[in-house]
Design goal:
Order of helices and strands: HHHHHHHH
Radius of gyration: 15 Å
Number of strands: 0
Distance between the termini: 29 Å
Structural class: mainly alpha
Largest sheet: none
Number of domains: 1
Length: 163
């Protein structure tokens, strides 16, 4: 991931923790699946060189799960299905029907846009989270990638958005 690695890592930790704030009653199984989904949700941008990265990112998460059996006690197929749903739904414009996927969607949108209050996240905890995991120009980096993609593909400027 090169120079993007630390900024992405911090984004992953922020989104993971924001999701936990929005969904505080996670089971151990949900938390483990959330960890995998958070780590992989945008990696296709860098590892696959694609701005249409949801499927490549979900494929990488599925592959990771297949190399680490019995993560949750669910079947591999169920783990993969749930993690893929979280990743595929995280750029939905409308709410996801899945509770964890929807909390993750809100957390990611809040972190990418900076509109944390609109997601219902408390300010005090947010300051500490941003202190622990600073932005490191993450939003600027994403904006640059989006502009470059939109110039090359004006008919599909944001291919990762879903309704």
């Amino acid at each position: 991931m090169g120079p993007a690695a630390e900024a992405y890592r911090n984004h992953v930790y922020r989104v993971f923790n924001l999701t936990r704030c929005l969904c505080p009653d996670l089971t151990d199984t949900e938390q483990r699946l959330l960890e995998v989904a958070a780590a992989c949700h945008d990696v296709g941008i860098w590892l696959d060189g694609s701005f249409d990265y949801l499927t490549p990112s979900a494929d990488r998460a599925s592959a990771w799960l297949s190399r680490h059996p019995d993560l949750t006690g669910l079947s591999l197929e169920e783990e993969q299905r749930q993690v893929r749903r979280i990743i595929h739904d995280h750029h939905k414009v409308r709410p996801s029907s899945d509770r964890l996927a929807n909390a993750f969607r809100k957390a990611d949108w809040a972190d990418v846009t900076g509109l944390y209050r609109l997601a219902g996240l408390p300010g005090v905890e947010l300051r500490e989270l941003l202190r622990q995991f600073p932005l490191l120009r993450f939003r600027r980096m994403l904006l640059g990638l989006a502009v470059a993609h939109a110039r090359r593909h004006p008919r599909s400027p944001l291919p990762m958005l879903r309704w």
